[in-house]
Amino acid sequence: KEKCYKLSLDLKQSTNGHVEALEILLLGLCGVPKENLRVHELCLKSGPNLGSEASEIRILCDLMQPEPAWTVRHVGGADQISVLVRTMVESKASKHVLRLFYLLGYKLDHELLRVGFAFHFQRGAQITVTVSSYSRLLKLHATDDDNVPVTPGIQMVEVTAPASAENYTEVAAAVSSFCEYLAPLLHLSKPGVSTGVVPTAAAAAASLMSFSGSTNIRHSEV
């Protein structure tokens, strides 16, 4: 089981230029090619036999692995935390995990397909930045069919890092510091509170795109 503190950022009005510029920026900071992302996400909600308060869990299947890898995720609330983070608890699971939760009384609410890319960094913490879009599955478990985009033209940018109660402050500071590198293109926002791109996003994207011929962007240039 791994407990994470999660910061979420949104890239609104995400034209191809904005996303490509962000990818160039992340590649320059990381120095290692991106990791492609394709995840089948199932949202389950508790039934009446599991208590008066409804609970929600997400079961994720990593479709990029040779053999599908399953993860159970529970995301905590953000309102109770003083800084722009929320807790996320993840546990690896076997391929029988969906059947187990059905037996426990959970019901499938909806399914999503998440497609995008990720970069991994070591900057005072193990930081992962993912850029992805979501589509709702129209047929049960049909990840290869045509599906409906949830937010057409919008990409979700998330910054995550594993933490514990002991190093929470250090990890939160490391993530916040890292996010300053993304400021030319993104506003940091609390999960669920959209702030969109900065007013100069188009100019920043155009500026970053001018470095597209180089695979390394120095910090002083960002």
From TrEMBL:
<comment type="similarity">
    <text>Belongs to the Mediator complex subunit 18 family.</text>
</comment>
<dbReference type="GO" id="GO:0006357">
    <property type="term" value="P:regulation of transcription by RNA polymerase II"/>
</dbReference>
<dbReference type="InterPro" id="IPR019095">
    <property type="entry name" value="Mediator_Med18"/>
</dbReference>
<keyword id="KW-0805">Transcription regulation</keyword>
<dbReference type="GO" id="GO:0016592">
    <property type="term" value="C:mediator complex"/>
</dbReference>
<protein>
    <recommendedName>
        <fullName>Mediator of RNA polymerase II transcription subunit 18</fullName>
    </recommendedName>
</protein>
<keyword id="KW-0539">Nucleus</keyword>
<dbReference type="GO" id="GO:0070847">
    <property type="term" value="C:core mediator complex"/>
</dbReference>
<dbReference type="GO" id="GO:0003712">
    <property type="term" value="F:transcription coregulator activity"/>
</dbReference>
<dbReference type="GO" id="GO:0006369">
    <property type="term" value="P:termination of RNA polymerase II transcription"/>
</dbReference>
<keyword id="KW-0804">Transcription</keyword>
